[in-house]
Amino acid sequence: MKEKPDKWQVRFERERIARNESEQLLEDKSRELFQVNRKLEEQIRNQGSQLVEQEELFESVFHASMDGIILLNGRGRIIEANHASLRMLGYSREIIIGAPIPRLIAENDKETAKIALRQVASTGYCRYEAELIRVDGTTFPSEIVGSRALVGGKPIIMGILRDITQRRRALADLKQARDEAEKANAAKSLFLASMSHEIRTPLNGVLGFTEMVLDTNLDDEQRQHLDLVKSSGDILLHMINDLLDFSRIESGMLLLEDKPFSLRKVLKDAVAMQSAISQKKGLTLSSQVATNIPEVIKGDIVRVQQVITNLISNALKFTHEGFVKISVTRSDDTISVAVKDTGIGFDESMTEALFESFTQADVSTTRKYGGTGLGLSICRKLASQMDGDIEAHGKLGEGAQFTFHFPLVEPSDVDQKKDSSSQKLTASEKQLPKNQRVLVAEDNQVNARLVVLMLNRLGYPSEVVANGLEVIEKLKNDQDFAVILMDRHMHGMDGIEATSRIRKGEAGQSCQKVPIIAVTASTLTEDREKCISAGMNGFLSKPLRPSDLEAQLSVILGKEDL
After folding, report:
1. In a domain, 426, yes or no
2. Residue 142: is it exposed, middle or buried by C-beta count within 10 angstroms (0-12/13-18/19+)?
3. Is 423 among the domain residues?
4. pTM above 0.85, yes or no
5. What is the pLDDT of residues 212-268, one digit of tens each?
6. Integer CA distances (angstroms), 522 to 192, 484, 543, in order
7. Is residue 406 a part of any domain in this protein?
8. Do 294 and 407 reside in the same domain of the chain?
9. Cα separation of 472 and 481, whole Å?
């Protein structure tokens, strides 16, 4: 029979077991705590290392920036500045830290800086330019960009400073270059206009007297020689016109009119002008207008006619046999004028080159056919100003077709009424008045003699004076002149001033409304406008044609109420 264990032994054993379990638990928890502590220490080390790296990165970027960077507190005082800003301003870090930002701003820009600080405080962003003051008192232009951020719950303003001295200098140089280019362009335009005037003046005599002699009895050889003189003069005049138009377009001085006109009449006149050439070359020149083309459209009649005439002239120039056909069609709101010929044509690869300035399809073309190579270039530029275009298609040796597209604009009722009233004043179909005296103001003796001869043939007696002052003195003593032909440019007193004085009554009340027609070698639009603004009633450009003079006199002297 077993002996029962002592109750104290049982209790001891239980306590021993419990103690062992407690020690084991404590050991396990200690081990866990150690591992957690080790991990925590490792995390602290890692975070500290990352923080150091981030600080180093910030310092590196902050000070490596080529732009100046300054940090401001909420009161606008500097709390940090990078190396670039210190170099830019010439301050040491110790001096600049704590300084208020207005201290760095030039007096004239302090108010701008205050406004910018308020802006960045309210919107978080600002951008402005101001003169900054260096430590030595000198200033430089700066662009300043400000932004706002919160650091530790406190507002921080970062300002980026950029020295824009070079930018300002570059802009100044650019402006100076632009101004010089504009001056050069204006000088070029003035030169071309002046040369045009100076060349047109003697050319007026050459072509005018040639036409006068051609209108007399000549033998065949004399007429042939004079026809060559006239043809050469016309070519020279065409080249001058091309150069002047090219200059106007390139300088942006060409302004388009916007008035009602008849496209059918424009086409009829253009064909009529070229009919003599087509007949001489034995070519068929025909035209056709679609029935859906309005009787009256709106635009610049002079420039539309110029483009159409140039295309027809080109077609006739490069066509030796066959035909030149002009067709006018409409597609929606676009009018197309196609000029087709059976001439020498061109290689399709040279299409764009045809429209380049001073360029023709081949060097030999210039030698054989002449010209400046500006005609098609000017036509396309004019078409472009009309919001249109010119396209070309052709095949070498098989002819070509040039098509002028431009928008169809139909005149309003108001435009129609204006045009109608204008036609009443400018109708040239009236019976030509005869035996009415004409006063000619012209300081060039050759041109004065030419105008007198033209007037005599038209049945108008005339007298000549040399400048505007003589016009006024003549009218004071003799008011019996039906019209004045006034040269635009004359020595002493020009035609503009003389006309203004006449309209003011300085030549006498009875002559205040005498019709005045400008006769000038200048073809610039602004010259025409000056003449009309001064009170002139008509405008004739040199070289002066007898038919143009007759038509203008018919218009002016046919008016009942001036």
Report:
1. no
2. buried
3. no
4. no
5. 888 888 888 888 888 888 777 777 777 777 777 777 776 666 778 888 999 999 898
6. 11, 18, 10
7. yes
8. yes
9. 12
